[in-house]
Amino acid sequence: MTVELESEYRPTDDEPFMNDRQRDYFRGKLLAWKEEILKESKETLANLQEESQNHPDLADRASSETDRSIELRARDRQRKLISKIDAALERISDGSYGYCEETGEPIALRRLEARPIATLSIEAQEAHERREKVYRDD
């Protein structure tokens, strides 16, 4: 079921959590984000194909290779982000979106607005980061 959203709609705490409007809002936000990433990836691929020429100057070649490496790392991060977006879309479909994976409590709408792929509430995320810091090998 899809609910028609006004373009200025923003989820609020005054309405039931993860109602149809909110789920549709976040689904649209995630799909738009994914579409933008895929568009940028296609542009990058086109640029890399154009840029694949051999530079006679060694400094130009090194600079070009560095730029290519940075761009490919950024694309790899975005590829991982797309998988997180897909997982969030799956959670919307199965009804678990918006709820903390550790506590089962609702994730604050402001957090979801800022980070729509969030799987942990602020409190659970902070606890996770503290544990990570304690057990990290320095």
Describe this structure in words.
- It is a single chain.
- This protein has 138 residues and is an all-alpha fold.
- It is 64% helix and 0% strand.
- It has four helices and no strands.
- Helix 1 (20-50) packs antiparallel against helix 2 (58-94).
- The termini are far apart.
- Report the strand count: 0
Provide the residue-averaged pLDDT: 88
Q: Tally the helices.
A: 4
Order of helices and strands: HHHH
Uncertain residue ranges = none
Give the radius of gyration: 20 Å
The major pleated sheet works out as: none
Query: What would you call the shape?
Result: flat
Q: State the end-to-end CA separation.
A: 50 Å
Label the structural class: mainly alpha
Strand content: under 5%
The level of helicity is: 55-70%
Concise account of the structure shown:
This protein has helices at residues 20-50, 58-94, 109-114, 122-135.
Secondary structure elements and their pairing?
Layout: H1 20-50, H2 58-94, H3 109-114, H4 122-135
Question: Which structural traits does this protein have?
Answer:
138 residues, mainly alpha, 0% strand
